[in-house]
Amino acid sequence: MSLLKRAIFILLLTAALLAALAWATFQLPVFGGAPDARLLERIHASKQFHAGRFENTPPYVSQLTLSGELKSYLGDEVREPQFEVPVQRMTAAELARPVAPGLRAWWLGHASVLLEIDGVRIMTDPVLSKRVSPFQFVGPARLHPPPLALSELKNVDAVVISHDHFDHLDMDTIRALAAGGTHFYVGLGIGAHLAKWGVPAAQIHDMDWWDKAEVRGVTIHCAPARHYSGRKSMDNSTLWSSWMVKGPEHSAYFSGDTGYTAHFEQIRERLGSPQLALLKIGAYGAWENIHMTPESAVLASKDLGAQTMLPVHWATFNLAYHAWEEPIVRAVAAAKAQGVQIVTPRPGEKFEMGRPFESRAWYLKGA
Q1: What is the spatial distance between Cα 250 and Cα 308, in angstroms, rounded to a whole number?
Q2: Which residues form the Metallo-beta-lactamase domain (predicted)?
Q3: What pLDDT does residue 57 have?
């Protein structure tokens, strides 16, 4: 064999081995699973499913460019806190007691919020792992510890999942909750990931926009959002959603990841106004079509007619090209200008509807 032929053979063999390794990697459970025939039939019947994938209306067209991304990546913003984030530690005992009437919320970081609403305990996008990545040895790490250890996360009745990206759908957290009997309410297709992770079918509820389900007198509504999905690539194979939770006396809304569109007004018209709106404010920049700015989040709170806005999706992972505290500073300023009531709890700090709450600027050094 000539040197040229040998070099070509080695090159082809290397390429084949790398392709095989990539294929094997994507088969790991953390990347999720594929829907069975019954779920696939429901997916194909969805009004949001077109030409083999879920789509926004109008479709999202990425404006990202390599040069623009590189320029943003090389920015000089301080993207991680330069002091210890003041986390208020929660205890397992708090989850061991029965859920009292009323509406309470604990922001656990990023998009994870523990809600107690009219006797039912619900979590949004629970992520308590160290990293938001397929692998816990590499990838964006937490900028502060979770207020509650994963081993202490118990007695959660229900979870709502906005979409299947790694910073919103965490395999280890899901498995821990599933072992305790938690039920999961997810956009169409996401249930296949949970099934892959061993969650019993009876605990998985795939839902389309405007579907609803009931948990001990509390109704969970799946509602529109503007985003995209995919565990392995941007293939829009699963449905992204926001969520309205309505009890006999109280209500809360969770935006998930979304751009600012008319869907907030549509949700108000169809489902009414929530008392508490958990609205994402971070990771915008060139992604504004699918990630609201802080100012847009405040407008969304007004569109919803929410009594109180609690900002989420900031301060926990370095995922965007802006200063780490910029989203909350802008959100507070916009809320003041727009006359929107906003609260800024520390991670793990309880907010209770109807009780006084003192918002501190804990995110500003020296405040």
Answers
A1: 12
A2: 121-314
A3: 85
Would you kindly state where each structural domain of the chain is located, as residue ranges?
92-352
- 152 token code pair: 């202490």
Residue 8, pLDDT above cutoff 70: no
CA distance 90 to 109: 13
- Mean pLDDT computed over every residue of the chain: 92
* Confidence class for position 135, pLDDT limits 50, 70, 90: confident
Please, which residues have CB within 8 angstroms of residue 15's CB and are 6 or more apart in sequence? none
Could you give the 3-state DSSP secondary structure of residue 48? coil
| Helix or strand run (H / E) with residue 175 | helix 171-179
Q: Between the CA of residue 65 and those of 61, 69, 71, what are the distances in Å? A: 12, 6, 10
Coil/strand/helix, residue 179: helix
- Residues of the chain above pLDDT 70, percent: 89
User: What is 92-352's CATH topology?
Assistant: Metallo-beta-lactamase; Chain A (3.60.15)
pTM for this prediction: 0.93
Instruction: Tell me the pairing of strands 350-352 and 103-109.
Output: antiparallel
